[in-house]
Design goal:
One of its GO terms (biological process) is carbohydrate metabolic process. It is globular, with a radius of gyration of 22 Å. It folds into two domains: 247 residues, 3 Solenoid (Pectate Lyase C-like), CATH 2.160.20.10; 199 residues, Pectate Lyase C-like (3 Solenoid). α5 links the parallel β20 and β21. It has a 28-stranded mixed beta sheet that branches. It has a two-stranded antiparallel sheet with strand order 8-9. By secondary structure, it is mainly beta. It has five helices and 30 strands. 13% of the residues lie in helices and 47% in strands. The structure holds 2-acetamido-2-deoxy-beta-D-glucopyranose (2 copies). The site of one 2-acetamido-2-deoxy-beta-D-glucopyranose has 3 residues, from β30.
């Protein structure tokens, strides 16, 4: 966390030892949000591509040429107007290049089958991809849908595995240091033109849907990614379902939804070396030039088994805007911050209408954090460009239960002096554990909090904070 307020400790506003605390406006908001979320799910499901089961499936055997055999079979299926390409059950495929998922193709991963990518797999001419909110040319994602329409990647459950071979990348990166790579991405964020944005050191995402529509990824394990694991960017109408992510290296966010519309991610389980589920929309000038928001997104019934950073995270790349995100029924067994909304001064755009409901989180340090001052040291923007604030508005967290494993501040809401957070509502939030530091609010307007932290109940109605105000809890 990059910000901390150092100021007077005020007493708890209301100390009510018993009784459930609820926000007054919960009912109306809940109904509206649930209707909106149900509409999105209906739209996405209605548009998913269907394939005749087994009929005409081309089965590609494992073997030294399986990479080109799989790609050729997908090309043939695509040329024939659609079809299924399948791998065998109980087989091990060693891949030495990326797989390109084409329109109207279903790629099937067999039961007890592993598709393992070697370290050199993406060492091909650089392709157009996207990382940390910047579209650039770099090593190809391992499974790549680029401008693909109506396709599926599906397995037979958790024993159908795509293994990114990330360990070799992580070892290599530890050797060369990731500092160079990271600063190159950040520099590229200030380059509005895509030409010249080349970075061959950013490791490949395991699976990337780029500029694609009507795609389903379901019922498989995505293991050991070198970088973000499943990334949906500039895409529309996507269903990510029953995916088991198991990635432990640095920067291996589980599921990243980026500048995309109408996306449903449900019933996934995630182990991630960074954020579990991450919602983004572009970085700085590069992100503004693309200017595509992430909107109409439903996250439902997901389990974050372990995330090194946020369980469910929004930002900090928000330069295309993020709105109408519904995160319903999330279970987190370990994360640093359960619900994490963040931006960096200069990112601009907005984060609006975020609705989080039914979270149970164990072993977290912080429960809910909204931070407009996330320290992500970006090289300074050229002085001619003003530092743009992000407009945070209407953020709602309802029925959230966190068990904190550290004496960190349980709830943190921090805007900017020149740009307040507006309309933040916490209803029926409970933080259990030895939590003394309950709550901090800075530069925020129209904040309502019905929460219990440790033994202390808070009932704040429409408060504003010009400076930083903090509240402690009794334990
Ligand atoms: C919440 O999600 C979990 C994990 O997917 C699932 O087991 C549970 O049934 C869901 N709860 C409800 C009320 O749908
Ligand atoms: C909260 O207070 C602000 C001004 O202090 C007012 O504009 C806003 O309408 C109030 N909101 C509610 C829900 O009462």
């Amino acid at each position: 966390m990059g910000w901390r307020c150092i100021c007077l400790l005020l007493g708890a506003v209301t100390a009510a030892p018993t009784g459930k605390v609820r926000g007054r406006r919960a009912a109306a908001d809940t109904a509206t949000a649930e209707t909106a979320a149900a509409d999105i799910v209906r739209r996405v499901l209605a548009g998913t591509p269907t394939f005749d089961d087994e009929r005409g499936a081309v089965v590609v055997p494992a073997g030294p040429d399986c990479t080109s055999a799989l790609n050729e079979a997908m090309l043939a299926a695509n040329s024939a107007g659609g079809g299924t390409v399948a791998t065998r059950d109980g087989a091990a495929y060693e891949l030495d290049g990326p797989l390109n998922l084409l329109s109207h193709v279903r790629l099937r991963v067999g039961r007890d089958t592993t598709l393992r990518f070697g370290y050199s797999a993406p060492q091909r001419p650089p392709v157009l991809r996207s990382a940390e909110g910047v579209v650039f040319h770099g090593p190809s994602p391992l499974v790549r849908a680029y401008r693909t329409h109506g396709a599926r990647v599906e397995g037979r459950g958790a024993s159908s595995v795509i293994d990114g071979g990330g360990r070799a990348w992580h070892e290599k990166n530890a050797m060369i240091g990731s500092a160079h790579r990271t600063s190159r991405i950040k520099e590229m964020g200030h380059e509005p033109s895509e030409h010249g944005r080349v970075d061959q050191r950013t490791p490949p995402t395991l699976l990337e849907l780029f500029g694609s529509t009507r795609i389903v990824v379901s019922s498989l394990t995505l293991r050991d990614s070198a970088f973000w694991t499943a990334h949906c960017v500039l895409s529309y109408g996507v269903l990510l379902e029953n995916i088991h992510v198991d990635s432990r290296g640095r920067n291996t966010d589980g599921i990243v939804i980026d500048s995309s519309t109408d996306v449903v991610a449900r019933r996934n389980s995630i182990v991630s070396g960074d954020d579990g589920i991450s919602i983004k929309s572009g970085r700085d000038a590069a992100g503004r030039s693309v200017g595509r928001p992430t909107e109409d997104l439903v996250l439902m019934d997901n389990v974050i088994v372990k995330a090194s950073a946020g369980g469910v995270a929004v930002g900090s790349e928000v330069s295309g805007g993020i709105r109408r995100v519904y995160a319903l029924n999330t279970t987190i067994t370990k994360a640093t911050i359960a619900c994490y909304v963040k931006s960096t001064p200069g990112r601009g755009a907005y984060v609006q209408d975020i609705y989080v409901r039914d979270v149970v989180a164990e072993q977290v340090k912080e429960c809910i954090t909204v931070n407009a001052n996330f320290k992500n040291p970006t090289p300074k923007p050229p002085p001619a460009r003003p530092a743009r604030p992000t407009d945070f508005r209407r953020l709602s967290f309802e029925h959230v239960l966190c068990r904190s494993s550290a004496d960190s501040r349980a709830i943190n809401l921090a805007g900017r002096p020149s740009y307040h957070l507006r309309g933040v509502r916490l209803a029926d939030v409970s933080v259990l554990g030895e939590v003394r530091k309950a709550l901090a609010i800075a530069y925020a307007t129209d904040v309502s909090i019905a929460a219990r932290v440790g033994a202390t109940a808070f009932d704040l109605r429409n408060v504003s904070a010009e400076e930083c105000r903090t509240w402690n809890a009794t334990t």
